[in-house]
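Hello,

Our lab assistant flagged a job as stuck in the queue for most of the afternoon. It eventually completed. Since we weren't sure the result was trustworthy after the delay, we are filing this so someone can double-check. Below is the sequence as submitted and the structure that was eventually returned. Let us know if re-running is recommended.
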Amino acid sequence: MMKLILNIFLLPLLLIFVCCDSPSEKTISETDKKTEELLSRMTLEEKVGQMTQINITEILIDSIVKNYDSVTTFVLDTNKLIHFVGKYHIGSFLNGRAVPADIWFNYMNQLQRVNLRYSKNKIPILYGVDHVHGSSYLKEGTIFPHNINIASTFDTSYAYLQGKVTTYETADLGHHWIFAPVMDLGRNKLWGRYYETFGEDPYLTSKMGSAFIRGIQENEDIKPYKAAACAKHFIGYSDPKSGWDRSPAEIPDQVLREFFLPSFKAAIDADVKTIMVNSGEVNGIPVHASHDILTKLLRDELGFQGVVVTDWQDIIALQTMHFVAENEKEATYLAIHAGIDMSMVPKSTSFCEHVIALVKEGRISEERINQSVRRILKLKFDLGLFDNPYPRNDRFARIATPENREKALNAARESIVLMKNTNELLPLKKEIKNILVTGYTANKKVPLCGGWTYRFSAKSDHWFPQDMPTIADAIKNEFTESTVTFAEENDLAKYASTAEVIVVAAGEENAYAETDGSINDLALSERQLKLIEKVLSYKKPVVLILTEGRPRIIHQVYDTCQAVLFAGLPGTMGAQAIAEILSGKVNPSGKMSFSYPYKQGHIIPYNYKRSEYSVIRPVKRELNRHSILEFGEGLSYTAFEYTDLTLNDTLLNENEKLTAKVTVTNKGKYSGKEAVLWFISDEYGSITRPVKELQYFEKHEIKPGGSYTFTFITDPQVHLWYPDKEGRKILEQGYFTIKVGNLSRRFKYVPKAK
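-- returned structure --
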């Protein structure tokens, strides 16, 4: 009775004085009112259950769990589910495998109905799925190229469509929390998750990631449902010192702010609903235990108001991997204090037990728990889960439609980079009648898609659509008037003599994800290099196609191959895109989203510091070549000429903007798309400056003989400053250079006299 009286009298005051995530709000929204009313009725145990996320394996029947990687169905163990939602009030579950839509529907329908039957306050489940590059965990779902490819399109519409198509196909199935996009900066090319990034540039990552988030969260076509994106992994995860996943990073505060922070700020500006945390450590502190990063930086400084979720078992890892806590209970205390809202436990209820004990001991306040639960409940209200908790099965025709596949195909077409094309070997002439195809990735589907495709890490082509072509298949389908032969290594000599051109596909043969992708170096496997060298020994024109999620070293054969395509991980439609580029049906327009290293060892990004490279005065040519292709480079079948770079002024102050224009003319015979990249170079700075930094990009199709004038407006408050280690803006007087194509113009920034 006393609790009821307190609720009646204190709830109105709570709604007025509640610690809102946004202090600037003067009125309480209806969602906030509903959230506070529900929160006031919940016990501590219910609240902690909402902060807990459990993996799908824990609620399936045993036979399915034991054969998890080979299942084609889900069978829910109702008793186990009742245990989790009835006793522990679990509020979130995650993941699955690529089963048919009807299986997903039945599973999610039963999951939500059992939950709402046993949930005291009828709080719906929020279900999270790793749809990393399309409908990854749905049989026959549309699969886009991975982010490393999407970034190479230099067209944010493809990132947007990737998010939109994913939710279009999966929201009806109850997948309302998409664990994407990765907003980490792709700096360390050894890292096993490199392909999940949008490359090595913070501006490109920011623009692509923001578009991806909007595609997920602003999709009106999935009504009455909504979906939440998840920007991951805050922060510094992608540059571990060793290159191994989940291992320590050493990143100076100034570097962290200048290069790694902008993409996450952009995600927050795009209203991303959730953020996942870096599994590793930064400068000696595991991020899951860092109050400075998760509260002071993320909440107080960046103003993030949404839900912060751990990655897989990462609170437990504070004890078992990082050794900053003597037991799981102390690890839980550190994580809650740092700012975690939800724990992806994901295979036990230990988190619930530890949090409840810590609150009862007075080490964690119940108001701190309320803070996290408030965010989680608000997310569920915002997504409409209370009004529409159940999946639907009347729109399955949306999945893998020809229109959706065409969008993925177009993304693949524009993501593939023509790295080299000696004597215009490509596109292959129609007169060529005998094409030999070989290579260890030429006749497999897995290498086209990589990890997070229908499985965490698929080990065979069994899981992929039957009508998905391999590279060899697609070339046969495209060159119908030629004889196209696929040959294994042992049969090469039999066909090489009559072949007019040899296409060899190489790269990473197997899918990998997270620590599965750990490698000691970037070298292409010795057997693949030997195969390429064998192909080259036949003295025929050779086209090398690289299917890989990170650059593998190929300097031994690169100079001898007449043409080279970086296909990356172009998805289920990738082989068709490759074949169309070979035939000339598609004019390649992709540009590298990272610098492709020439050799092992001295691997640097395009925006390196001057002292990193310019001080080297090597005698040997190979030492003077750090990249095969630099970020932003890529060839076309036509020739684009940049002329007439003009600035409206050469003197700029903080209240002015500088307008730069450049004309790009198609001087060749093919219509083509050109991505125009604008860089700015700061000549001198109190903190050493990169040689150049991408500040804007724009892409247009230009017909033969046609021209297009591209415009870039420089705003000093946006483009000319950089942060110090505390995040304060440094905007200094001095000379800057705008660079576009092969042209550059210099201007001076002078702060306005006070």
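-- support follow-up --
The delay was a queue issue, not a problem with the job. The result is valid. The mean pLDDT is 93. The first strand starts at residue 52 and ends at 55.
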